[in-house]
Amino acid sequence: MQFSNHYILDREYFSECFEQSALQHPPKKQRYKFIGALLAFGFSIMTFTDQSVAVGFFFIGLAFLEYFSFKYRKPWWLTRQMWSKNAGNKINLHIDEQGIRIESLYQTQLFQWQNINQAIETPDGLIFKIQTGEQSYLSKATLNDAVIEFIKSKIKTSTIND
């Protein structure tokens, strides 16, 4: 089988990638006790010790950072992806008997079938677990049914349901 297609790495693609990957690893709960401990420790240092108030503010700042890093994890992740060199670029996708090749302006990735441990099918795409510990996402919008079945025949596939 030979399949080629292209897509653009835009905010919608990155958003889909984040949401579908979150199905695999649901977000952990906010660590309110940890945040409270950081705040209490910061205020305690400022109130009961002779240390500089900057040390207390450091721990209070860590508490706010912990809170906002959880609350805004998706927008922050999307922003970091949109700052990447490949954001907005055309990505060429080639799938054949050797594996999956993803080419962009700045890099080329080749995932050979024997190096892909598992494919996890989500409602909107496929998450590939690579032997090196990486994971890669492909949207089903860039694939057709025959290619999806071809991929499933090449590697062990599991499914995540909504």
Report the strand count.
8
What's the main sheet like?
4 strands, antiparallel
The separation of the N and C termini measures 30 Å
CATH architecture of the largest domain: Roll
Written account of the structure:
- With about 160 residues, the chain is an alpha+beta fold.
- It folds into two domains: about 100 residues, PH-domain like; about 50 residues, no CATH class.
- Helix content is about 45%, strand content about 25%.
- It contains five helices and eight strands, in the order βααααββββββαβ.
- The protein is elongated.
Key features?
162 residues; alpha+beta; PH-domain like; 2 domains; four-stranded antiparallel sheet; four-stranded mixed sheet; 5 helices; 26% strand
Concise account of the structure shown:
The chain is α+β, with helices and mostly antiparallel strands and 162 residues long. Helices cover 43% and strands 26% of the residues. It has a four-stranded antiparallel β-sheet with strand order 1-2-3-4, with no helix packed on it. The chain has a four-stranded mixed β-sheet with strand order 7-6-5-8, with helices on one face.
